[in-house]
Task: structure prediction
Amino acid sequence: MTHTARRIGRSLALVLPVVLVLSGTLAVTSVPWAGHTTTESQMLTASSENVSVRATSRAPQDVLRDKLLTELQEKDAGTALTHLQRAVEERPSLAKHCVSIARALGRAAVDRYGPTRAQSFSRPVCDTSFATGVSQQTQGS
Result:
């Protein structure tokens, strides 16, 4: 009797975890997403075509440009230009991108403030590239 019970116990010890994992996986994949009121049942699929695709990291200059453009919208162009100058001083590798970032700020300043007021924020950051961006945006090029 003990031998038979031991044998059944070992079999269950091997089979039961596999059954539990598979049933749990199947249960999770068939649960509709909470909060959706659509009539279609949206289900999580266990496989995806893009599983091996990694998220791309953004270049530091792109992150800085987006941050400064947001700052221009939330505060003003002067603050964004000051922070651009500080960022270039702290990370000299950004110096080669300073011109393009300052021009983008100049264009965004024209869109936000108009050409006259945007020009009032101009300062010699990145060889007056901000002023060049203001001028380009004003001329529509």
